[in-house]
Amino acid sequence: MAMERVSQMRAIAIILIAAALGYFGYYYTVEGRSPSAAIGELTGETARAEAEAQRAAV
């Protein structure tokens, strides 16, 4: 029973890691963004930085 649970948790971890690598790999290869730029887009940091830069330019 305990071994089954460890096996399931390992499978879930592998799936999550593969999903994260696929997400960042897509942005890196298709859109030419670095992983940090993809995280910034995901968290909204990019939009805040763009708005701040625009206010500073005016």
TrEMBL record:
Transmembrane stretches in the record are 12-29
Q: Which keywords has UniProt assigned to this entry?
A: Membrane, Transmembrane, Transmembrane helix
Q: Which domain of life is it from?
A: Bacteria
Designated name of the protein? Uncharacterized protein
